[in-house]
Batch of 3 targets.
Target 1
Amino acid sequence: MDYVPALARWLHFMAGVMWIGLLYYFNFVQVAALKAATADGTAAGITKHVAPRALLYFRWAAVVTWLAGAALLGNQFVNAFTLRGGMAGIGIGAWLGTIMLINVWALIWPNQQKILGLKPATDEEKNKARRVAFLASRTNVALSIPMLFFMAGGWSHRAIFGL
Amino acid sequence: MKNPLDSLWGTVISGLILTVILYFVVKSILS
């Protein structure tokens, strides 16, 4: 059983890098690139060939990251989510990651399906979907900053909290 | 007022402010 935390941590890191890496790609690269590509009529290259693939790895990496994180918490899972037993730091990180996962599956992905034409939608619905998906994605970028702070420092770097 | 999430800098600064707030929340729980 000692192998489980080590393998879970490894998987948590790999999937987490893919998830947050693609989140940063969407926000730091694709939003601006799509604006420029729409202006010169080349947006289809991104919306047809890049975005659907990126979203596939993005949403499933989010699930794998969460599950591996839950496995890593092990019998401390409840203590983390109730911020007890000295687990408040990683617990806040776990809560932020959970909110981000919900954002991916409840807001970003269903709205991206409308935007990319994978689900039927009127122009008005597409415009609304664009705004909701954009704000949910930007919210996840903002939440990723404290999430990574608590993921990296909440478990072992107790000195940060003066302990 | 403009939504800070409309700009990348606004998003990053929002995240940093949230980090500071949550840091003090966690510190008070752990102390």
Target 2
Amino acid sequence: MYQNNKVLNVDGNKDLEGQAVKVAGRNNGKNQQWNVIYVDESKKIADKGLNVDFGFHVNRPFYMQSRLPLRRVIESIGANNMVIKRYTKGRLAQQFLFNPKDKTIRSQQWKNYAVEIQSNGGSTNVRCTSTINSRWW
Amino acid sequence: MVAKKHGKVSQQWNVIYVDEYPEEPKKGELNPDFGLYVERDFHIVSQMSANRYLDLIGNNFVIKSPNSRKSQIWYFDQRSYTIKSRIANKSWDIISSGKSTKMQIYTTNSGWF
């Protein structure tokens, strides 16, 4: 993307999640090179099997078990805050899935809710919230 | 304005008759001057090793893993000659009329300076 000697530039040449993109003079670095991929030509997202990049099996429910001595699992309380609780067989609030489309971890019980760090990643609190806004920052 | 003739491009003009004026590319057609298809959604993918997508977080341009959100979808707007975000229908803009290094999306009077 080039205009008037300015190009889109990944700031600091750091290939990190959430790294800022600004403009800069052209230097032909990889951090200034982009591909335009039209959405109607982009690859279909697999809806099963292992997602190698994220290390999760797609849409396969899982527990998140603490390695503390009592091996409690994470439970979403009322589709919001997340706590550790004793494992209860079949309790959907303790089960989560990896959604390959938006790369979120979703609640099995509240399927439209995903794990996110509160306050746009500025908080230490992790919760399940509507996937409209949730991000794993 | 008028000025004394110096022969530079700022004083050179073409006369194009209305009935011969070329039609502008329509939706789905290529704009050859910009190299982009009109109003056809696209992603902008970094060629750095992780191939992250250009994403809009708030009003900040960042790279993120692909996530199927509208904030990673862009299109070329023939009317304003700008690239717009699907999430806000606003255009790419360099802050401070191009003097800053920071990008934002802004109303359609914005410029890719």
Target 3
Amino acid sequence: MKRASCPSCGAPVVFRAASSLYVVCDFCRSTLLRSGEDLQNIGRMAELLEDASPIRIGSEGHFRQRHFTVVGRIQLQHASGLWNEWHILLDDGRSAWLAEASGELIVSAQVAVKDPLPAFSTLAPEMPVTLDGRRFVVTDLATARCIAGEGELPFRVAAGYDVSTADLRGNDRFVTIDYSETPPLVFVGQSVALADLQLSGLRDVREPAVAPAQVATRALNCPHCAAPLQIHSPATESIGCESCGSIIGVDDENLSLLSRAAQALREVPWLPLGSAGRLRDSDWRVIGFMRRSSISAGPTYSWSEYLLYDGQQALAWLIEYQGHWNLARGLSNPPSVTRGEAKFTHAGRQYRLFNHGEAEVIHVVGEFHWRVAVGERCVVDDFICPPLMLSREVNERESIWSQAEYLEPDEVCTAFGITTPLPVRRDVYANQPNPLVETHRQICRLFWKLALAATVVQLAFIFLIASEPVLRQRVVLAAENDEATLTSQEFVLKSRARALLVRHQTSVVNNWLSVNTTLVEKNTGEAHLGQQEISHYKGVEDGESWSEGSPADELVFRAVPPGTYHLVIEYELGSDSSESVVDTIEVIRNPTGWSNYVLLLIFLAVFPLLSRWRRNSFEARRWHESDVGDEASGDGDED
Amino acid sequence: MRAMSAMKRAATETRTEMIKANWLAGLLALALFSNAQYQGWNLFGHEGSSQTARAVAGRGHHK
């Protein structure tokens, strides 16, 4: 650490980072260049614009378990707003940058890149760029103007200094190429949450438990109609006046009229601006409302987007379309998806393209963190994996990804305490969870349970309640005897038979056999009658074999009392063949058949088939709303 | 999470009836199947008829 005095005003100045070449005096704002042991005053630094960032020089935090101190800042301004680049000094002596823009924080450090860098003018949003073997996608192109600086800086900062930067993202890495120098500087980093940085020594820091109702606001007046305006978020760059429809730019403490009462559409938001509520474990306040419309070919449709602010750093969108609600947040780690790609996997989930089109802002009210304008257009791709949806919005300057999660309408009402009737929910929304997926899954599980139970019962009948063969006899019918009556051997039923199966397994081929079977009890003479026709024909015709009928047939007698029995069988043999016929007669007591088991399984399968149909109908209704085709398919199949 | 519970509640309401009906019908079918197997019922089987008429024995011959 080097201490010195400002050569201009004598105030003490400190160089904590060895890499710092410049320091801006806190008192007189002189920019001082370190030159050996001396300090050289190279000019006065412009005043910083008030942006109400919670971070300040001297704030401390942790990044990847390493402590750092904020030692300097440069403030940049571009078309859509301000952003800060905080110069941070890590405990190991290295320095890095903490970028703070539109509610997102990114820690990055300069790296050397071997690959040649593309020229700034050749870049476009969504363009893939490979750096040292890693693939990135251009997400933002900006030409910003450095407007001021403070504290220690590793290079000279002068107000009015223009910086062209390209932001790229790939996997969870964030790359900024700074084209202000030749060759361009490359900074690699990653997006971090404010809480993960464990920042201390913040300015005007609010505890997370504080409700958004207590968020400090700035009261202003519309420069066109003098209606009162409020600014809740320090990231606010523009305001849509509820009263006259003008759009006002916010610069420091000043307001500038960007669009004078130019909004043809006037709409009262269902969720009033200023509404506060707790949604998904965060306290939110509604600070802006936007109506957007599709401008693609075919029917146009519009939807509402409410900008939410959590009172600290985070911004989110509450989106409503035809009574369906989504909570969307910016995606700091977007997937690498090229144009036209219809499927991709992100964070273990597979997303499918649902909609592709162009959207236009048609009405704005309240605060926004960029210079919003009616007529602002972007190309939108929605990829769904219910209940999530990833959306990519691309304009000529940037590509923004957001992740939306479907909300039940009641949850929105409860969160914001709204008692007015909800917009009526119609149709099936893109990422609306299919409740029938879980139903189908449960019904499939139930099917397997019942099928298992049926199998156990069937096996129990086969092995535990065993069927018992009581007679097996072979009979030969001579071809010359077209009629014959035979009496079988006797067999004994010691107890009542629930069923007695008589099976004729014959060798009849290309002939028919009429069989009248009489089961006769020896002592009582009680008889049970059965008549069967057995016919079996086969042959070869035009080189193809064919077969008709069967040489075997079965007959069942029910509730046969105990006793001594024999069979009296009257055969009548057809004259289609001159072959003798052998009939093997089997009598089985209490046989176990398979047909009931098969029938039961068919019956049980009706339910999963029905639930599958219902589930797919829901998906068909969902994909009917898609403009990339009907892809109703069976997700979650387990049957 | 309230959202998850709300979604689960809605989904539960939707599926309860069908699952209940499936349970009921499945158990009834299983009971019917068990009884059919016990009784030896067969939907496709050829069934003989009982009668008390005395049969004339001895007309045939053993082979």
